[in-house]
Amino acid sequence: MTRRQMTLIGLTLALILLALASLCAGKVWVPFPLWFGSPTDPLWGILFQLRLPRTLLAMAVGATLGLTGAALQGYTRNPLADPGVLGVSAMAALGAVTALSLGLAGAAFLPTAAMAGALIGVVMLLMLAGTGTSMVTFVLAGVILNTLAGAGVALVMSLAPNPWAAGEIMDWLMGSLVDRSLADLAFALPFMMAGCGLVGLTGRALDALTLGETGARSLGINLSRTRLWLALGVALSTGAAVAVTGVIGFVGLVVPHLLRPWVGARPSGLLMPAALGGAVLVLAGDVLVRLIPAEAEIKLGVAMALLGAPFFLTLLISLRRRLA
Questions:
Q1: Tell me, what CATH number does 55's domain have?
Q2: Are 236 and 115 contacting, i.e. CB atoms less than 8 angstroms apart?
Q3: Of 23, 41, 64, 143, which sits 20 to 30 A from 229 (CA to CA)?
Q4: CA 160, CA 164: separation in Å to the nearest integer?
Q5: Neighbouring C-beta atoms of residue 99, cutoff 10 Å
Q6: Domains identified in the chain, total number
Q7: pLDDT in tens, 173-215
Q8: What's the whole-model pTM score?
Q9: Spatial distance between the Cα atoms of 96 and 320, rounded to a whole number of angstroms
């Protein structure tokens, strides 16, 4: 059995255990024996109406962010690539916030606006940085997108019709899985699955791109089609994830780096482990924020930022020393 297979098995087992813990854990614990009790028990409502959608959504969002982060790193040959760091998530948030401010927060408008924002972000990122530019140029392109999206969100909040609307937008931007329903999951999951499917189709092209664009073309890779699939896949999956949870950053940056020593540097071989690893990380973070003794539950997006920001800084220092 290879190290990659062992890693996949370990991640799968960790995901199952965390899913069981997620169904049990919270301010009100739901012991495992009560899962098979009477449907009239109030704990059944907590289990199936609150905990189950939250658990499934955490797994779906984590898998989406982990997969897209690994794909973007493979496509750009840039270890700092990630939907959050490069501004894609921020552009999706701008689209969603615009819909919220216009009162278009229905089942169709909010995800559509978020996916449109993510698509614009991906296209702008590829136009600003291209595919063969330096790491510094790509990071600067992400900074430009994040700054643009941040300014847009600030403008929308300043034009909010009342303080409650601005507070709702700010609360949503911090990222959370609280009070998400099966309806949210049912609407967002098809888009996330479709987007992840498109990203998965780029696996062979990502491997070829390790030889550079010229080498990839010599192997028969259609780079224009690869770019289109990746842009649409990242936009659909990231936009749908942001629409239902708000901004949860750094997952796509952290997970590929943690798993690469175990599964190898081949980009296509990292996609599935990164999806499982992302699901494990988000689910673990969501269980942790529920267990922290505090009057109000810490937002999941805040917890992920507290984890990811030091990791990002450490990675940046390491890359700087390597290039010096």
A1: 1.10.3470.10
A2: yes
A3: 143
A4: 9
A5: 23
A6: 1
A7: 888 898 888 888 888 899 999 999 999 999 999 999 888 888 8
A8: 0.88
A9: 35
